[in-house]
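Risk register update: the risk of archive-format incompatibility is retired. Evidence:
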Amino acid sequence: MAFGIHRNELNMWKEAVNRGEIAYLTHYWLDKRFPGMKTVTKVGCSDLARLTAWCIAHDLPPQYIHNRSPFPHFDLIGPKQIEILRQEQVWDQLERFQLLTQA
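Archived output:
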């Protein structure tokens, strides 16, 4: 279940993904399979080669890319989510979802 984002943010993410950009969308999320995790960041890009290269550059297994047309994405959760958002300087999402206090 996803919550904590506005339709405008989602639409902006979708547009960036469609343009072949690496786009980040963080939202609150609850899933019984991942107890204690409260947020997820969807890293999307319609260019699968570019998204695969992004995964490899961040030491992430590209086989976990959700190849869902038209919005392929990789889900970041936990410490790796915070680490990568910091590396990519996605400060607005780190601050908004209070992820900096978890690091």
